[in-house]
């Protein structure tokens, strides 16, 4: 397969909720090791597209390609097999468990989806394996030192890192993050961008973000959605100067 084949590509994605067309004929692709941002005003369809890419929404129309090969849109139960992992907005940690246990619970889910066989997961040997993978995932977000901390003692920025560690346990080739910088201050946003850039050495990353500035520095390519359609795409500079984008953001006061 040629090296310029996109890791993930979709064409003609249309999603309706009753009479409302949330996405209309959307084209989108992520290259290997690329960090791609999906931005747009509130209600633009960002979460709907994210959900379609991770199996939470089934499109009415559209084509899905992984590594250039057409396949059905993902379902939540085959995401791991497809090499896709995601974090979701507002999914919390169990406060009375340790950070490591929280990441391991993410891995238990892998046992259920077959990546780690359910039979093996019942014996101690496999628990050790899950523990080891979870520790590695924490190291990759520079949170190895937090492993034994109770989750409810973490700072907010640290909970965001742990949520990413949970997604990394399945060793994805495509990582999808819904508003990873949401609620973070300037310094923590820079830190998060650095972390994402480092992760992209091993995988492709898709970021969904409401605020354009947050993703400008970390993404090599941006797609801008408005009213369910891609109104602009390209480098941060291209998108920032695009009159259609300026109008869309001014129109909502964002
Ligand atoms: N489950 C749903 N049922 C009905 N309408 C929905 C649903 N999810 C999203 N929508 C509508 O679809 C449009 C796009 O929403 P969404 O994808 O959440 O936008 P964004 O994430 O960009 O803010 C909005 O008009 C929203 O109200
Ligand atoms: Mg959203």
Automatic annotation (TrEMBL):
SMART domains: AAA. The keyword Nucleotide-binding applies. InterPro entries: AAA+_ATPase, ABC_AA/LPS_Transport, ABC_transporter-like_ATP-bd, BCA_ABC_TP_C, P-loop_NTPase. One of its GO terms (molecular function) is ATP hydrolysis activity. One of its GO terms (cellular component) is plasma membrane. Keywords: ATP-binding, Nucleotide-binding, Transport. SUPFAM superfamilies: P-loop containing nucleoside triphosphate hydrolases. The keyword Nucleotide-binding applies. Residues 8-252 form the ABC transporter domain. Pfam families: ABC_tran, BCA_ABC_TP_C. This is Unannotated protein. The lineage of its organism: unclassified sequences, metagenomes, ecological metagenomes.
